[in-house]
Design goal:
- By secondary structure, the protein is α+β, with helices and mostly antiparallel strands.
- The chain has three domains: 113 residues, Beta-Lactamase (2-Layer Sandwich), CATH 3.30.450; 97 residues, Helix Hairpins; 147 residues, Heat Shock Protein 90 (2-Layer Sandwich).
- Helix content is 48%, strand content 14%.
- The chain has ten helices and eleven strands.
- It has a five-stranded mixed beta sheet.
- Helix 2 crosses helix 4, helix 7 packs parallel to helix 10 and helix 8 crosses helix 9.
- The longest helix has 46 residues.
- The radius of gyration is 46 Å and the shape is elongated.
- It starts with a helix and ends in an 11-residue tail after the last strand.
- The C terminus is likely disordered.
């Protein structure tokens, strides 16, 4: 599935915002960890504080406790023993065990480590931090009969709602990005309408002009105006071309009819037959060009055509003339029909069979109906067409024989006209190698079904 321009741009914006959001939060966490290390005091530090407090008294102890005070560490002394029960959480039990191990060198002292929220004095977002799980309160019984209380706090990396720091900024950035996406979609919407209008363009009818966006970008408005001008010019050019071709066709047919009447007064003979054949070729060439122009202008008729019957009629006509043509049919649906122009489809079959007979001496024709496709293949017994020239052979006035001598081939319009008519019916045409040698021309046309096919039981 291919994404539209708006979807691609929106995806880039969303991914960029997400990456910036995640990166900024990760950078904050990493810098916070690098700056503060482990915010909880290590057992060895607490043991050192206990020893210093016990060695000092009075003003010196007050100065010591003031010097130890920081954003993540506070210590105070209460008279009497006020030792709590160590919390059952793993982090506090490990801290209590480590403290006892470090205080063993100073003598046995009662120790407790509890959560700040369990001590009756909650510390903001205790228990919700994304760097460390909790704030701790450590109590150590001193030899002086007092209690040293140390509060080990974590730096706040979340707000009062428990959300990570930067979440609100990221959310605000996402909202801004969403607004930008909505504005971008509004700005690119005219481009989508322009693309749809190009697909709907019918040069045979009156041009349908796109409304200009008054509030859109100047470049988009200029593009819409240019498209409207182009559509109007193409419509005028096509009508002028069709009128010119129609007039030329009428005049040439008139002259050809006059020539044909004059030829009838000529004595029978080879020259008379050649003149009649030249006039017939001229009229056929003119009909091919006119039919191809109608196909390009989307002016072909539409009716349900039994394509295999057209093929059979063309084959029978050539068999009656003694030409080497054979036919094989394999139809799954006897009523398989193609929606299109009967004259145009007959011209496709006629041109391809004539090419096979002219350059390959024989024409092996096969018609097969697949699930939703009618396949026509025509094989000849000629020298074939080199792979590098097959695509060029479908272009107008291109022949394998480089000269323009009509005695060595046609005008080079047969395959080109067939291609235009087939593509106008939504089909495809391709040149490949025939299984028995020579060239194969394969035409695929979509079948028409008036209602969905029911599965067979």
């Amino acid at each position: 599935m291919r994404l539209t321009f708006a979807a691609r741009t929106g995806l880039i914006v969303v991914l960029s915002l997400t990456a910036a959001w995640i990166g900024s939060i990760a950078l904050f966490y990493l810098s916070a960890n690098a700056d503060q290390g482990d915010p909880r005091p290590l057992p060895g530090q607490v043991a050192a504080v206990v020893e210093l407090v016990e060695r000092t008294s009075g003003d010196e102890r007050t100065l010591l406790l003031r010097a130890l005070r920081s954003q993540i560490f506070q210590a105070r002394i209460e008279s009497g023993m006020h030792i709590a029960t160590t919390s059952r959480q793993l982090v506090t039990r490990l801290n209590a065990r480590g403290l006892q191990d470090h205080l063993a060198a100073l003598g046995e002292r009662p120790v407790s480590v509890v959560l700040a929220s369990e001590s009756g004095q909650p510390r903001g977002i205790s228990g919700r931090s994304f760097i460390v799980p909790v704030d701790l309160e450590i109590r150590v019984g001193l030899l002086t009969g007092e209690t040293l209380i140390i509060e080990a706090r974590s730096l706040s990396v979340a707000n009062i709602f428990g959300l990570p720091v930067g979440f609100v900024s990221g959310l605000l950035g996402s909202l801004i990005g969403l607004i930008a996406l909505i504005i971008m979609h509004r700005e690119t919407k005219p481009l989508m309408r322009l693309s749809a209008a190009v697909d709907r363009t019918d040069l045979a009818g009156s041009p349908v002009l796109l409304p200009e966006e008054r509030s859109g970008a100047p470049e988009v408005r200029a593009l819409i105006r240019a498209f409207n001008r182009l559509q109007d010019r193409l419509s005028h050019l096509l009508r002028a071309r069709m009128g010119m071709i129609g007039g030329i066709s009428h005049d040439v047919r008139t002259f050809a009819t006059r020539l044909r009447l004059r030829i009838d007064h000529m004595p029978a003979g080879l020259e008379r037959d050649r003149a009649i054949a030249d006039i017939a070729d001229m009229i056929k060439l003119l009909d091919d060009a006119l039919l191809a122009s109608r196909a390009g202008a989307n002016e072909l008729d539409e009716e349900l055509v039994e394509f295999h019957q057209i093929v059979r009629a063309e084959v029978d006509d050539r068999r009656a003339a003694g030409q080497a043509v054979d036919l094989e049919m394999a139809l799954k649906d006897a009523d398989a029909a193609v929606l299109g122009d009967r004259l145009a489809l007959r011209r496709v079959v006629a041109n391809l069979i004539e090419n096979a007979l002219k350059y390959g001496q024989v024409a092996h024709v096969q018609v097969v109906s697949a699930e939703r496709t009618m396949l026509l293949t025509i094989d000849d017994a000629g020298a074939g067409i080199p792979p590098e020239q097959r695509e060029a052979m479908l272009e107008p006035f291109v022949r394998l024989e480089a000269s323009r001598n009509r005695q060595t081939g046609g005008a080079g319009l047969g395959l080109a006209v067939a291609r235009n008519l087939v593509e106008a019916h939504g089909g495809t045409i391709a040149i490949t190698d025939a299984p028995t040698g020579g060239a194969r021309v394969a035409v695929r046309l979509p079948l028409f079904f008036s209602q969905p096919r029911l599965p067979a039981y």
